Amino acid sequence: MARRHRYTHQRYLEGQDEHHLRQLTLIRDLQDAVSNGELWMAYQPKVNAMTGRVNQCEALMRWRHPSLGFIPPDEFIGLAERSGSIRMLSQWMLANVCAQLHAWKQQGYHLSVAVNLSASDVVDRQLSVHLTSLFERYQLNPAQLSIEVTESAVMHDVDAAMSTLLELNQLGLSIAIDDYGTGYSSLAQIKRLPVSELKIDKSFVLAIDSQKDDLTIVRSTIEMGHSLGLRLVAEGVENRASAELLSKLGCDFLQGYWIAKPMPADELPGWLDNFTPL
Ligand code: C2E
Ligand code: CA
Ligand code: CA
Ligand code: CA
């Protein structure tokens, strides 16, 4: 018994070591991921529930590590935040997305893109200056870009975040609260920010067609959000029943695997050409 215990404990420690080693490797290699061309952006369409059409996508970062393969953003974004490389990744991401918007426009696709920002991005005093120069370089209307940010990223340093968000909003960007419902802030607190959209977290949406409680939460979130003048987006829409239910509840935008998975930029025009409005 004692021996077996020692054995499993040993295995546990080895597992911890492996995990730790992987994290250190990823943190180190993230530094060169941009210059080595290992990152790219995937785009996931958002459907306007009123018109059934798509004119917006969310940009999601992808990393293929040369030896470890595909690393999910849920793993590397957190590491980048803690190791200080997130700003470099965000700068690359914003330039890449703006260049893409410019390229799509030249191909005749007039889209807008939502990007995800981290806590350290929303306290970056240079962000709106940086974006302004990107909009000039790529001849974009700032309204073509919108920002998704979680409550926790904003509440981390609410005064600094507030001034950045106000600047972005004055530039013409709209701002959404991501993963809404998983944090602790009230809608009253959120309403003080220059926010126009709430994205209901997918944990409430995934089983909305079978879980009564989830349906109740989503319904009241939509009602409350609308009464405060906010647009509502549901992410994690995985089947037709959920999409129909959400449209009936008055949800403004739908996003999820049932509509499309995130895809490389060059696949989006073909996808849009073949998409039949809902
Ligand atoms: P998020 O912003 O909440 O993005 C939604 C996630 O849900 C994405 O995962 C997306 O692929 C996934 N998803 C979309 N539809 C469905 C569905 O129908 N079912 C299910 N089960 N999942 C769905 P992904 O791409 O792995 O990204 C994970 C998280 O990583 C994002 O969550 C975001 O917090 C972060 N992230 C991704 N790209 C960036 C970025 O460029 N910058 C920052 N700061 N964070 C990013
Ligand atoms: Ca998001
Ligand atoms: Ca989300
Ligand atoms: Ca998330």
Q: Give the number of helices.
A: 12
Please report the distance between the alpha carbons of the first and last residues: 61 Å
What is the arithmetic mean of pLDDT? 95
User: What's the number of extended β-strand segments?
Assistant: 10
* Strand-pairing-aware structural class: alpha/beta
Strand content range:
15-25%
Write a short abstract of this structure.
This protein is of the alpha/beta class and 278 residues long. Helices cover 50% and strands 20% of the residues.
List keywords for this structure.
binds calcium ion, binds ligand C2E, single chain, 12 helices, 8-stranded mixed beta barrel, 278 residues, 20% strand, alpha/beta, GGDEF domain-containing protein
Characterization of the model:
- The protein is an alpha/beta fold and 278 residues long.
- 50% of the residues lie in helices and 20% in strands.
- It has an 8-stranded mixed β-barrel with strand order 1-2-4-5-6-7-8-9, surrounded by 5 helices.
- Helix 3 runs parallel beside helix 5.
- The longest helix has 32 residues.
- The model has no long low-confidence stretch (mean pLDDT 95).
- Bound molecules: ligand C2E and calcium ion (3 copies).
- Ligand C2E binds next to strand 2, helix 2 and strand 6.
Task: Map the helices and strands.
Elements: H1 2-33, E1 39-48, E2 54-65, E3 69-71, H2 73-83, H3 86-106, E4 112-116, H4 119-122, H5 127-137, E5 145-150, H6 151-155, H7 158-171, E6 174-180, H8 187-191, E7 197-200, H9 202-205, H10 212-227, E8 231-234, H11 240-248, E9 253-254, E10 263-264, H12 268-274
Parallel strand pairs: 2-4, 4-5, 5-6, 6-7, 7-8, 8-9
Antiparallel strand pairs: 1-2, 1-9, 1-10, 2-3
Helix pairs in contact: 1-2, 3-5
Bound molecules: ligand C2E and calcium ion (3 copies).
Protein name: GGDEF domain-containing protein
Domain EAL: 23-276
Organism: Vreelandella sulfidaeris
